[in-house]
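Much of our argument rests on the idea that a fold can be written as discrete symbols. This step matters because it turns folding into a mapping between discrete strings. The record that follows shows the chain in one-letter code together with its fold in token form.
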Amino acid sequence: MKFHVTGTSGSENPTKATLVFLHAKGSREAGHEVSISLLGDAVVMVNPTIAKNIQGVGLPPLTELINFAKENGIPVYG
């Protein structure tokens, strides 16, 4: 199955912003093809300076999830 996850939240809502990458990680780990689109405020999430300071409540650090996406060939469009 193919999934395309879209995020619109940025650093103003770290939990919502992180969930996009967490959903993509879970989909890939389940064997699905997945891609990510970042729109509006979410585009800044791939900036390393911003990403290293983002962690949603009860979620892994955003940088960990971005690294997973890179290592697993998950395309991120923004």
